[in-house]
Amino acid sequence: MDYKMEEGKLTVQMQGKIDSDSAPEFEKELFDVISKNPDLEPVLDAEKLEYISSAGLRVLMKLRKQRDKLDMINVSRDVYEIMEVTGFTELFTIRKALRKMSIEGAELIGKGGNGAVYRLDKENIVKVYFGISNPVQKIEQDRLISRQVFIHGINTAIPYDMVQVGEDYGVVFEMIDALTLGQFLSRNPEKTDEYVHRMTELLKQMHRTEFDDDELPDARNLLYHRLKLCADSPYFTPEEIQIMRDMIDRIPKRNTFVHGDFHPGNIMVNDDELILIDVGDSGLGHPVNDLMGMYLLYIVAARSGSSERYCGLNAEILSGMWQQFLGEYFGTRDEEQIGKITQAIGGLAQLKLMQGIVVNPGISDEVRQTALDGVKKTFFGYTDQILEGALGLF
Fold first, then answer.
1. Does the structure show a pLDDT above 80 at 349?
2. Residues 345, 198 within the same domain
3. 4, 33, 39, 380: least surrounded by Cβ within 10 Å?
4. pTM for the full model?
5. What CATH number is given to the structural domain containing 272?
6. From CA 146, how far away is CA 160, in angstroms rounded?
7. Which domain holds residue 60?
């Protein structure tokens, strides 16, 4: 029996067949290694477990009686059926082994700071999450959130399977053969005004849609999660981390729907209908949670030349879309006022930008430090004005 210790957990590798002949030795080794590491949370990894009999299950029951919580991961279909029939799925937190999938040759249809979306075939797409800030538990939560959003009548793709893609994880969605809004507008530029209007109306409708308390996560959770990663990095002082935390705390909590990554790469066009994809980071909160993410694409990514990679549209097109969107969303045609709105949203968006720079695995440490230095100069010291300016828009 193999095991490893990391991040406060003792992961025990179960192997082969655990039956009446092998169960006594398995029990001795299991309890011996756990007793030597009493402060670590045991996790049973069943990736190499072929079969477990009632004798093996009794060993697990002994361990369960000593623990309030016990996880078993990478459980095969056959072993899961045994656990389900015997009622062990009610006693353990059991995660099935993930189907492995390759995206080699698949069409990239959208990309953001959190992951990338690929088309597998005419009816299926997969979102692959970038590793460092997306543990498997978070992705499973995202899948459940996607299901909840769909059930509540928001027009989304249907999630149905969690998979492993290389070293990363992903969620497969059933999807009709459609184009992203970015692809659609690049092929039909004459329809840009019409579809920006429809996109804006969709977002306004979403921001008016209320859910019950705790039906979806707090939209600020991703900011808090990434703040912890920032705190564990060498790029911020404790004082800077506290300033960022205080700012997130002051973003008002609401029960209205927030997508979390609303841009033309995450909206599909099918039969003249707009369908949201990538709703795993959706939550409940203030509309500013959406708008600062939009600023990072329409302004920051566009200026850096990376917007086409994310949504298929260049800086010139996105600039016009942003102007029209803000005018319709806030009900103004005054270009000076739209400029002030952009500045206010952009100030708060720097918080999310700094976090994205830290967690992005594609950025070298040298570039990361230089990029952060530039953003920090215009952020810290002005946080009160930044937050008041952004929230004062609503």
1. yes
2. yes
3. 39
4. 0.69
5. 3.90.1200
6. 9
7. 2-97
Torsion of CA 207, 209, 215, 221, to 10 degrees: 0
Domain boundary among 174, 196, 219: 174
Of 44, 46, 118, nearest to 81 (Cα)? 46
Chain-centroid distance, C-alpha 368: 21
Question: Is position 268 within any domain?
Answer: yes
> How crowded is residue 146: how many other Cβ atoms within 10 Å of its Cβ?
25
Shared domain for 111 and 46, answered yes or no, is: no
173 neighbors 159 (Cβ within 8 angstroms): yes
> How far, in Å, CA of 387 to CA of 247, rounded?
7
197 and 151 inside one domain: no
Phi-psi region of 328 (alpha: psi -120 to 50; beta: other; left: phi over 0): alpha
Q: 221 and 185 in one domain? A: yes
Query: Per the structure block, which two tokens stand in for 213?
Result: 């308390």
- Tell me the Ramachandran region of residue 166: left when phi exceeds 0, alpha when psi lies from -120 to 50, beta otherwise: left
Tell me which of 97, 132, 156 is where a domain ends. Answer: 97
Chain mean pLDDT for the chain: 89
The sheet with strand 71-75 has its strands ordered as 2-6, 9-18, 41-52, 71-75, 93-96
Exposure string over 320-345, b if 16+ CB within 10 A, otherwise e: ebbbbbbbbbeeeeeeeebeebbebb
In a domain, 151, yes or no: yes
Whether 249 and 183 have beta carbons less than 8 Å apart is answered as no
Are residues 145 and 87 both part of a single domain? no
Same domain, 140 and 22: no
The residues near 137 (Cβ < 8 Å, ≥ 6 apart) are none
What is the tens place of the pLDDT at every residue in 266-316?
898 987 889 888 887 789 999 999 999 999 999 999 998 888 888 889 999
Instruction: Write the pLDDT tens digit of every residue in 351-393.
Output: 999 999 998 888 899 999 999 998 998 899 888 899 999 999 9
Report CA-CA distances (Å) from 259 to 63, 169, 314. 41, 21, 23
Quick check: is 102 in a domain? no
Residues 257 and 127 occupy one common structural domain: no
Q: Cα separation of 180 and 206, whole Å?
A: 19
Question: Cα separation of 147 and 149, whole Å?
Answer: 6
Same domain for 293 and 387, yes or no, is yes
- Of residues 33 and 143, more confidence is placed in 33
Question: How many domains are there within the chain?
Answer: 3
Q: Is 381 left (phi over 0), alpha (psi -120 to 50) or beta?
A: left
